[in-house]
Amino acid sequence: MRFRYERPNISRKNEAIDFINEFYEYGSKINGVGGLTRYLDDYEGWLKKLEEDYTREVTEDKVPTRTYFLIRVDDNKIIGMANIRTKLNQKLMNFGGNIGYCIRPTERKNGYNKVNLYLALKVCKECGIKKALLDADKGNPASWRTMESLGAVLESEKRVELYGEDVVRFYSIDVDRSLELYGDMYEDLV
């Protein structure tokens, strides 16, 4: 099985909306979708926002980002998404980090998010990011184990009131080292 990143485009409109609706159907948290949840009635507006995000200047509220669909090549299906913040403001350095990602509920437990994170790290490298920051709810071991499987180092754990007072685990990944160590494992899949 092979995977690739694809920049969102108009031809994926219905599939992208179905992707988000699957999270609602399963009552699952949605992360790493570049704000698509706010644009289900204005997909074209979302595409325009993504173009603006690509070259956005860092402010207190916004940073430049790149958003991708994770496509399973075998059936050309969106199975995940990633939102990669290529520069961080203080708020994102404290919570949110460089990478948000997700796999659709019906495609979980197949190891796909490891491929998703690997591809995100490749984008980080292209953008000159040496150390990627990520976080995950302590109650979401699938997410933080994905990070650990690609060499993420746990930096701290703390309560984040903004997020329902959940305990959040904060990680960093040495991008070059991770790609070097795990390239043999994932390059055949991309």
**How does the helix and strand content classify structurally?**
alpha+beta
The dominant shape is globular
**Whole-number mean pLDDT:** 95
- Count of strand segments: 7
Main sheet properties = 4 strands, antiparallel
Series of H and E elements: EHHEEHEHEHEEH
- SS element count, helices: 6
Percent of residues in helices: 25-40%
Straight-line N-to-C gap: 9 Å
Residue stretches low in confidence (pLDDT < 50, at least 5 long) are none
Strand content: 25-35%
What topology, given as strand order, has the largest sheet?
Answer: 1-2-3-4
The Cα radius of gyration reads 16 Å
Structure summary:
This protein has 190 residues and is an alpha+beta fold.
Describe this structure as you would to a colleague.
The protein has 190 residues and is of the alpha+beta class. The protein is 35% helix and 26% strand. The protein has 6 helices and 7 strands, in the order E-H-H-E-E-H-E-H-E-H-E-E-H. It has helices at 13-26, 43-54, 90-94, 112-126, 141-149, 175-186; strands at 3-6, 65-72, 77-85, 99-103, 131-137, 153-160, 166-174. A 4-stranded antiparallel beta sheet has the order 1-2-3-4, sandwiched between helices. Strands 5-7-6 form a 3-stranded antiparallel beta sheet. Strand 6 and strand 7 form a beta hairpin. Helix 4 crosses helix 6 (175-186). The chain is globular and about 40 Å long. It starts with a strand and ends with a helix. The mean pLDDT is 95.
